[in-house]
Amino acid sequence: MGKNKRYKWQGVAFALFWFVTGIFFVMMLSTTVRNHSKQNIKDIVINLDNGNHPFVTEEKIEDLLKEHFGTNHLDIPYKDINLFDLEWQLGKNYYVEQANFYIDMKDIMHVNVTQKQPLIRIISDLNNRDYYISKKGDKLPVSLDYTARVLVATGNIMDNNTGVGKIETDILWDLYHLAQYISENEILNALTEQIHIDQNGEIEIIPKVGNFKIKLGKAEHLDKKLLNILVFYKEGLPQIGWDVYDKFNFSYTNQIISSNN
Predict the structure, then answer these.
(1) What are the C-alpha distances in Å from 178 to residues 166, 205, 216, 220?
(2) Cα–Cα distance for residue pair 261/132, rounded to 1 Å
(3) 102-108 long-range Cβ contacts below 8 angstroms, 24+ apart
(4) Residue 114 forms beta bridges with which residues?
(5) What is the pTM of this model?
(6) Interhelix angle 58-69/83-91, nearest 10 degrees
(7) What is the largest CA-CA distance in the chain?
(8) How far is the C-alpha of 9 from the C-alpha of 204, rounded, in Å?
(9) What is the mean pLDDT of the chain?
(10) Is the pLDDT of residue 180 over 80?
């Protein structure tokens, strides 16, 4: 009985030891966190990927943070920082694709931002709308601070009367896919200046070189038509000449019609 009682008291002592140790650890951790919350972050490092289209800049991100915290400096106390809220606030910016915040062991807050990339600019004669469409199909408003040198589409372009949000009309989807194809082809991208939608809803391409237009017609069989144009650039125009005709019609996939207006 004496031996069993000794084992019992040893178990109690062991449990009491770890109980007291746990309380001490929680108190120390609580004190550390409480003291740490009174400190300020030491620095902010911004890692920005804007793809050489600076709709978003480091300065603008710093200004947004200053406005968010209501301060003219970025010496921010830990207790005022909510990383998830910061990500949400920055993510509301139309140009921001992704935002990530974290604080490292050296008390430095890191801000990682990826910007949406413009693919084509839309200037509609129907409703005087002017905006970009990104490479992922988002509408981006034009900026007073920066103009992206991208493909431009003009003319009778019907949309949902907003310069932000998602693509919602067939003609915008057609322009989006056409701009994708052109931008991914080195020759077509180098030679294409503008896309125009005429009053009949047919597509025209205005090249950078030459005084002619290329008519694509309706947005049907675009891959085939653009392949024909590519072959025409390489093989046809060098023989015909760049200034002989005013228009080349590729509306039909099996023939090319040239004309002078």
Answers:
(1) 17, 10, 11, 11
(2) 32
(3) 103/41, 106/42, 107/39, 107/41, 107/42, 107/43, 108/41, 108/42, 108/43, 108/44, 108/45
(4) 49, 98
(5) 0.79
(6) 120
(7) 116
(8) 92
(9) 83
(10) yes
